[in-house]
Amino acid sequence: MLTKDLLRYKTQNGQIHPQFVKPTDTKLLAIAEQLIAVFEESPDKPRATLLETSKHIIDSTAGPLIIKRGLEKLLLDRTEFDTTPNEELIAFRQKLFTETSRLLSQEQFENYTDYTQAACGLAGQCKVLGTTEESRPEGAPIEVADLTAKLYADLPSCQPVLAFKTLSAEHLLHRYNTAQVQGLLLHSNSLTLKLADSMTAELRQLFKYLRFNQLLSTIQKEKTENNEVYQITVDGPLNLFYKTKRYGMNLANFFLAVLHQPKWELTAEIQFRNKQRYGLSLNESCGIKPISRQFLAYIPEDIQLFQTMLRNKTDDWQIRPGSQFIPLPGDFYCFPDYQLVHKSGVETAIELFHPWHQGHLIARLNTLAEQTDVSLILGVSKELEKEPLIADALAASVYFSQFGFTFRDVPTIRTLLPILNALV
Predict the structure, then answer these.
(1) Which domain holds residue 394?
(2) How would you class 370 by CB atoms within 10 Å of its CB: exposed for 0-12, middle for 13-18, buried for 19 or more?
């Protein structure tokens, strides 16, 4: 993902236009190949060495600095560093500082040189530092330079590279263009997506990806001159007051699934730090190719856990991730998190509302207020239930009293089974 300072865009007449690069640009492809080669050779090297080598390429090649730094950032996102805390080193550092502080308080040092020599002597007695120098007698002081280098060997700049997930230069440029859009979506108030009503596997996968990222949307069908389209409206992170960073990342990742659709039209409202709002408009002709695979059979861990819990409690119900639309009044639709089938043939679905779904929950309760034939169970996060407005709405909802439950991290079978059994 690209940070705000690495985004390239222009604004004109209230619209914001991301500045894409050409994935066929030979000069950029050459720079991308050089950077990728540096990262491919980085395993076992410290982070500082990797960044120094990468900076040399950035400084020595022609082209906009912001693009090259953006490419470097995307490659760093694909790099795994050893961030495991060195507990032995942390303990030694505390011991060394405590002891030298005690000696300082006793005014045993006439100058800084005496102090550093004492610190090196203490370090030489420790098994953590200085044990690799075979020529140094055990317990002898280590050199000042060695102490300086090794005392903070667990700093981020010293963390070794464990692995790098490589890619082609052309793929990196496509990923850069995608990241330009994702970076803007992190600053969005809302997003609207229009898709052809094809009911293809790609479309169903898009809605699954929407749900797996815990993004709730308003889904409505619109009739055009030629066909019908789905209009999907999703809240942006700036329109929320709860964990907006996590939600923004989920929304940005959702854009990856949009790119797999044959025809799409996206509009969003972008706003940087409460300044002027700009409109973002893109469609499939923008030239960005999909940079990820369709996740197809992928099932998130929380859904797998819920499936396992249900199987352990009852054989009467079978559960699977949501895959079909449920029509609601007013030409609205719901794409549930789970779909369940009883051995008798009775079917129902579950829609979950997380802490950032306050507006959508109120709208859903209003939609279902007079309904008796919609087979949809509502699960509401206990964090969301703490909101006075939500608590009052749930208490007043006849529908929720019959077909609703609350949950903490994931739904529990104890609260769900009574509702399921009442359906049969």
Answers:
(1) 301-423
(2) exposed
